Backbone:
């Protein structure tokens, strides 16, 4: 494979210079820009004028270093995606386990009293003890409040 200027490559393949320039612009041919700013087209050694090939062969994608870099980067990103998916699945399992351990402290539906007066709070129904009577111990009052609130 030889690298020839556009004019020579076009002559060798039997096409016009304009057609060769368009192929370079469309990147349908393997071409590089030389140090002098002139495009050099890769032409097969066995190419003849009027060659029936539609286009001059281009380099394979693995020939270019940029493609190799992107291929490595893509493989890295795919591995990272697999790892993140694994972590998300693990977090879902941990969240479900934690949710099973947490008691339901807030009722899903509003409390409907079964009997009249059940919807009153212990503070509203607290009776004043007659003089000389002992007050209910605070621990038992808290226990009733917890039961009423559904905390235990």
Residues:
């Amino acid at each position: 494979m030889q690298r020839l200027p556009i004019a020579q490559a076009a002559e060798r393949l039997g096409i016009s210079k304009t057609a060769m320039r368009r192929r370079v612009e469309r990147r349908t041919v393997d071409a590089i820009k030389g140090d002098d700013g002139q495009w050099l087209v890769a032409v097969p050694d066995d190419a003849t004028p009027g060659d029936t090939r539609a286009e001059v062969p281009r380099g394979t994608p693995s020939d270019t270093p940029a493609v190799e870099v992107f291929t490595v980067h893509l493989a890295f990103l795919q591995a990272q995606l697999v790892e993140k998916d694994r972590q998300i699945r693990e977090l879902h399992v941990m969240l479900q386990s934690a949710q099973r351990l947490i008691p339901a402290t807030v009722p899903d539906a509003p409390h409907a009293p079964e009997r009249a007066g059940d919807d009153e709070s212990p503070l509203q129904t607290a009776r004043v003890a007659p003089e000389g009577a002992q007050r209910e111990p605070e621990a038992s009052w808290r226990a009733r409040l917890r039961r009423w609130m559904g905390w235990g």
Notes: The mean pLDDT is 75. The helical segments are 6-13, 17-26, 65-101, 122-125, 138-149. The longest helix spans residues 65-101. Residues 129 and 135 are 7 Å apart (CA to CA).
